[in-house]
C-alpha cells in the first residue's frame, strides 16, 4: 500500500469509526478531514501529508512546554518499566513527589492534592469536596453552587451544568439539569452585563451580583462558588483587579467555599504559575489539569487548603472522602508531570509567558486600527483574544449567516495556522516556549486572514 492509500484509508476509517469533538463527521468527510497529526516540535505539529502547522491553540491551550519533549517521554517510560500502576490506597514515588511539589508551588496553604485524569474530573472532585466539607462543618443545607455565565468547567455530569451558555451552545439534550445551580454574570470588561465602563467598575458590579445571589438563595443553602481566574469560552475576559479579592471577601463573609478553576490558567499560562497570584488570592480549592503535564498524558487534580483537607483526615469517625477513581493517582502521568514542571521552571517558561504574551498583545493591538472587525484585544500572559464585531461602536456581532468563524478557519488553514475562531472571537493559547518571531508569524497570518475576510464581507474601514 502506498503512503497516499494508507493516509486515505486512515482518514476514511476515522470518519467511519471515530467520534470527534464538537463536529459532525458528515461535514468532515465532505472537507476531506480529519487531518491526521503525526509529529510535533515546539509550537509546530506535522500532519501525515507532511504539512507543518503552527499550533496557536497549543492543543486545547494545554501543551504548555511545547511538543516533542522527549525527556517527558523518557520519564514516563522509566516509570512504566519499574511500576506501571498501583492504586492510591497505597501510593508510588512520583505521585507522592508530585503532591509535595504542588504544595510547594501553589499559593498559600493549598497543600493536599486529590489526583484525577483531567479538568472535568478535577472540578467534579472540587465540588464534591466543597459539599462534603460543608456537611462536616455542620451545614448540611449547603448544596448550591454558583458559577458564571460564559464560563466552562467541563463536560461530565455536574460540570456540564456549571457555567452558562456561550452563544450557539445548548444543553437541552442533557437534561434534567442539576439542581442547585446558580448563575451570575461574567466580569467581562468588554461586554459588562451591568454596563460597567471600566474593568474596575465591571468587577465591582459583578462581584456585587455574587453577594446578591448568595443573599437571594440564603447563605445557608450555598456550598461554593467556582470561577476561572480568566475566562475563555466567549472571549478572553480578564476581570478588573478588584474582582478576585472581592470574591474572597464575599465567600468568607457568607461561609461559601471559593473554587478557582485553573485548568487553563495554571502552570504559567497567564505569566505567573497560577493566575490567582495576580490578585494575591488563595482559593479554598484549586482545580488543575492541562498544563500540569502539558497534555502529554491525562492528569488533573483538586488541590485543597490544609484546613479544608484536615476535615477529611479520618480519626474516630473516619469521615474520609468517599471518592475512588481507578486512574486517579496514576504514577506514569505523575512522573511525566514532574519532568514537565521541571522544564517550566528551568527554562523560565512562565517568565516567557509574561514577556512574550505582553508582546503578542501589543502586536495584536497594532492590528486594531487597520481592521474594523477587531472590536477588542485582551489577554494576560499567553492567553490572548480578539473580539470580532460587525460594528465597533455598538459591538454588534456578525450574523450567523455571515459564517465568519468558518471563513476565518479557511484563511488560517491556508496559512498553516491552527486556530479555532468562533463567529464572535478568536482566543489563543500557544505553547509557552513560543518566540517573538513565531508571534510575528501568527500576527501576520491574522492580519492577512482578517483582511481577506473583510474583503469577502465587504467590510470597510471608516
Ligand atoms: C477552565 C476549564 N475547566 C475545565 C475544563 C475541562 O477539562 P477537561 O477537558 O480536561 O475535562 C476545561 C477544558 O477546556 C477548561 O477550559
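^ Assign residues to that structure.
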Amino acid at each position: 500500500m502506498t503512503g497516499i492509500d494508507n493516509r486515505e484509508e486512515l482518514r476514511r476509517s476515522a470518519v467511519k469509526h471515530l467520534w470527534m469533538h464538537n463536529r459532525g463527521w458528515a461535514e468532515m468527510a465532505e472537507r476531506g478531514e480529519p487531518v491526521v497529526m503525526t509529529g510535533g516540535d515546539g509550537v509546530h505539529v506535522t500532519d501525515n501529508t507532511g504539512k507543518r502547522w503552527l499550533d496557536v491553540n497549543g492543543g486545547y491551550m494545554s501543551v504548555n512546554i511545547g511538543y516533542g519533549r522527549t525527556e517527558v517521554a523518557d520519564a514516563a517510560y522509566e516509570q512504566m518499566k519499574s511500576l506501571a500502576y498501583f492504586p492510591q490506597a497505597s501510593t508510588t514515588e512520583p505521585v507522592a513527589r508530585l503532591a509535595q511539589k504542588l504544595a510547594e508551588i501553589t499559593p498559600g496553604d493549598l497543600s493536599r492534592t486529590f489526583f484525577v485524569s483531567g479538568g472535568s474530573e478535577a472540578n467534579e472532585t472540587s465540588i464534591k469536596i466543597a459539599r462534603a466539607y460543608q456537611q462536616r462543618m455542620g451545614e448540611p443545607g449547603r448544596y448550591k453552587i454558583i458559577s458564571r455565565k460564559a464560563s466552562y468547567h467541563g463536560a461530565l455530569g455536574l460540570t456540564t451544568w456549571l457555567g452558562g451558555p456561550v452563544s450557539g451552545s445548548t444543553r437541552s439534550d442533557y437534561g434534567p439539569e442539576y439542581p442547585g445551580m446558580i448563575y451570575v454574570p461574567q466580569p467581562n470588561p468588554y461586554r459588562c452585563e451591568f454596563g460597567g465602563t471600566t474593568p474596575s467598575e465591571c468587577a465591582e458590579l459583578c462581584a456585587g451580583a455574587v453577594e446578591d445571589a448568595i443573599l437571594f438563595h440564603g447563605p445557608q443553602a450555598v456550598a461554593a462558588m467556582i470561577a476561572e481566574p480568566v475566562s475563555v469560552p466567549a472571549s478572553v475576559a480578564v476581570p478588573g483587579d478588584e474582582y478576585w479579592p472581592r470574591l474572597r471577601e464575599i465567600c468568607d463573609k457568607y461561609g461559601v467555599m471559593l473554587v478557582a478553576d485553573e485548568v487553563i490558567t495554571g502552570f504559567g499560562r497567564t505569566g505567573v504559575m497560577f493566575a490567582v497570584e495576580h490578585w494575591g488570592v488563595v482559593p479554598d480549592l484549586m482545580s488543575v489539569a492541562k498544563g500540569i503535564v502539558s497534555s502529554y498524558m491525562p492528569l488533573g487534580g483538586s488541590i485543597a487548603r490544609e484546613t479544608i483537607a484536615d476535615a477529611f483526615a479520618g480519626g474516630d469517625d473516619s469521615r474520609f472522602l468517599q471518592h475512588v477513581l481507578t486512574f486517579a493517582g496514576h504514577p506514569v502521568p505523575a512522573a511525566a508531570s514532574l519532568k514537565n514542571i521541571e522544564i517550566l521552571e528551568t527554562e523560565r517558561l512562565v517568565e516567557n509567558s509574561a514577556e512574550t504574551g505582553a508582546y503578542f498583545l501589543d502586536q495584536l493591538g497594532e492590528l486594531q486600527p487597520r481592521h474594523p472587525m477587531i472590536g477588542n484585544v485582551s489577554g494576560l500572559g499567553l492567553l490572548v483574544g480578539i473580539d470580532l464585531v460587525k460594528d465597533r461602536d455598538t459591538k454588534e456581532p456578525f450574523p450567523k449567516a455571515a459564517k465568519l468563524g468558518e471563513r476565518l478557519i479557511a484563511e488560517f488553514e491556508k496559512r498553516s495556522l491552527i486556530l479555532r475562531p468562533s463567529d464572535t472571537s478568536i482566543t489563543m493559547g500557544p505553547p509557552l516556549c513560543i518566540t517573538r518571531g513565531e508571534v510575528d508569524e501568527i500576527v501576520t497570518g491574522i492580519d492577512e486572514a482578517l483582511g481577506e475576510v473583510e474583503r469577502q464581507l465587504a467590510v470597510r474601514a471608516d
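The longest strand covers residues 110-116.
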